[in-house]
Amino acid sequence: SNIGSQKERVVTEEEWLQKWEMGNIGFHKEQGHPLLQKYLDVLLNGRSGLRIFFPLCGKAVEMKWLADMGHSVVGVEVSEQAVKEFFSEHSLPYCEEPVPEISGAKMFQSTSGNISLYCCSIYDLSSSVVGKFDGVWDRGALVAVNPRDRQRYASLMISLVEKNSSYLLVTVSYDPNKHKGPPFYVPESEIKSLFG
């Protein structure tokens, strides 16, 4: 497959913010993702009380679902609107505070303390700020990252997970010559080279 047509494509932070402002969020799913339900036991691996990371989380309903099961959920999202909509749509009270280590970043945390959403660029995060995770639900993050940033993204994700963590990744398969993305086409061979 020729992915040359997508290789140079760049979607700016402003474009993502605009998608949220315009309500152009076809990527948001009102119902929990069936693949998370199907592979939940793989993610949890018989463990409870996990720290689960949602990269480029938007207002994913699965965050509340997993938090309600007793897990601690951390997400990162560039759109403050998306983060606030998540809390309001689930009627969850929250507090908002600056993140001292990241200029301009805010952290929105549910009053119950089990959901923390960072509003900043994912590339500003590090394990010294957010800690490490037992699980990752990547349902649209890797495929949304600009193709030229994939290696940087994968390296960051690897640095954020514990040794025995589970990483669930959803990608999309299509002819990249017919669609410019996002979501971008990420062949399985590239996933293997990124994550080993």
UniProtKB/TrEMBL annotation:
Is this entry keyworded S-adenosyl-L-methionine? yes
Instruction: Give the catalytic activity.
Output: S-adenosyl-L-methionine + a thiopurine = S-adenosyl-L-homocysteine + a thiopurine S-methylether
Q: Which SUPFAM superfamilies match?
A: S-adenosyl-L-methionine-dependent methyltransferases
Q: Which GO terms describe its molecular function?
A: thiopurine S-methyltransferase activity
Query: Subcellular location, in the record's words?
Result: Cytoplasm
> Could you tell me which InterPro entries the record lists for this protein?
SAM-dependent_MTases_sf, Thiopurine_S-MeTrfase, TPMT
Q: Which GO terms describe its biological process?
A: methylation
- Which Pfam families does the record match to this protein? TPMT
Which spans of this chain does the record mark as coiled coil?
none
Q: Where does S-adenosyl-L-methionine bind?
A: 16-27, 56, 77, 121-122, 139
- Cellular component aspect of the GO annotation: cytoplasm
Record key words, sorted: Cytoplasm, Methyltransferase, S-adenosyl-L-methionine, Transferase
EC numbers on record: 2.1.1.67
User: Would the keyword Zinc turn up in this protein's UniProt record?
Assistant: no
What family name appears in the similarity comment? Answer: Belongs to the class I-like SAM-binding methyltransferase superfamily. TPMT family.
Can you name this protein? thiopurine S-methyltransferase
Top-level taxonomy: Eukaryota, Metazoa, Chordata, Craniata, Vertebrata
